[in-house]
Amino acid sequence: MRARPVYLKFRMQSAQCKIPALSTLNSALSTLNWRHGVLARLAAPCSREKLGKDGGNNTAMNATTENATTEFDTVRAYTDPQINQKIDSTIEERIRFYATQPHDVISKRIEELDQECDIERYLETNAAGLALSGVVLGLFSKKWLLLSATVLGFLLQHAIKGWCPPVSLLRKFGVRTRREIDREKSALKILRGDFQMVPHDPEQLRKNPANDVLTMVSS
Questions:
Q1: What is the pTM of this model?
Q2: Are 196 and 28 in contact (CB under 8 A)?
């Protein structure tokens, strides 16, 4: 039988068991932020004098962490901060749980994340279904064509503005953006050890970036 994570039970027992969940989580998230920083430095190289001889790595880490937390997301920008906080807390709670699990359990979770529908897919699927229903029902009563027009209007608004009224409803139900799903997925990959073969020295990575970076993003 497939075991489901019992988060409340885990949180109660974690204080009694000597499980390094917090340190493992922090290490995974720090490594994830650092690797995004390496990609950013490769895309926009800067002089060694600007970074400084001793403070280069710290500067990259601080800048990357800041970019990871402040990167603009239109859906999150239009979402109630409390809902964003709830989604973020759920992601953190899951990563804390899977930090104590074997690699096969983490791999199953990653497969689930690959199949998880993000908010864009929900919008596209629902809009297509409702618009088609409105057209079919419009054959019997033209009033139903208003349904199709409204849905298509919402879809156009989302394409232009990045938000439409159904987004707020979906967010209340906990539907995540692709970026939020990928955040959990990347952290789990780090916990599984997918990036261990990638060099930790930015200068070493710069010498032969193609293979190392491709290995990082395709893992």
A1: 0.66
A2: no
